[in-house]
Amino acid sequence: MILKKGFLVAFEGIDGAGKTTQAKLLYEHLTMKGLTVVLSKEPTDSIYGQKIKKLAQGERDLTKPLDEYRLFINDRKIHVENLIKPALQEKKIVILDRYYFSTIAYQGALGLDIGKIKEENESFSPIPEIVFLLNVPPRVGIIRIQKGREEEPNLFEQEKYLSDVSKVFNALNEDYIVPLEGVDGVDIIHNKIINVIDDVVKHYSKRHEQYSLFCNNLKAC
To answer: Which of 63, 89, 211, 212 keeps 20 to 30 A from 163, CA to CA?
Structure first.
């Protein structure tokens, strides 16, 4: 199967919502269909991404929200230029575990202007075809972090803060955002995701386009 156009899919939600699991499952599903897929995540391992990870482990209290925001922007600019845009130009599917919607929610919850965050990010970041927003109560997310990862929540994963982040996420209303209940079973969520994505793949598939043209010519399909 060859796509006539690459497209971008992002998974969003608070920590512990199940984004990483569903991103990997979708990657495996599309790869098995013979499609060329790139799976990535944010923050990346760039110099800025490494600084963000240090914030989570203890330096966040010493960093101003605007300075933190600039780290995410700089990390994303490298990601977009070095991976996301080239992959889309090569007609690949790009799956992201977090994208600029997380910046809107997490930095917006710190008091930064949500509209300005969105405007700056979309000035250089490709807008996704689909954003799957996994919703879970903050307490559930924290329990998953503690039990599933066997980790203590970091400075980005405090319950009150995640509650504020969740409110920002749920206020997003773009047409391409697909909300999903993250407390559902993994397979249930995955099946809902592939039902959406398979339709998108079909729309952008050259094989589908050629078949439709063949059917129209024959007037027999």
So the answer is: 63
* pLDDT tens-digit series, residues 160-217: 899 999 999 999 999 999 999 999 999 999 999 999 999 999 999 865 444 444 344 4
Position 210 scores a pLDDT of 47
Stretch (H or E) spanning 41: strand 37-41
| DSSP code of residue 61 | G
**Token code pair at residue 141:** 């997310």
The pairing of beta strand 130-135 with beta strand 93-97: unpaired
CA dist 179 to 10, 26, 119, 175, 217, Å? 12, 16, 22, 11, 39
Residues found in the chain:
221
CB 53 within 8 A of CB 41: no
Element at 208 (helix H, strand E) = helix 206-218
Whole-structure pTM value: 0.89
* Cβ-count burial 57-78 (b if 16+ within 10 Å, e if not): eeebeebeeeebbebbbbbbee
Of the candidates 97, 134, 101, the one whose C-alpha atom is nearest the C-alpha of residue 117 is 101
Look at residue 220 in the predicted model and tell me its pLDDT: 44
In contact, 133 and 12? CB cutoff 8 Å:
yes
Tokens of 206: 């050259």
Contact 90, 7 (CB under 8 A): no
Q: What residue ranges define each of the domains in the chain, with the CATH number in brackets? A: 7-218 (3.40.50.300)
Backbone φ and ψ for 132, nearest 5 degrees, come out as -90, 115
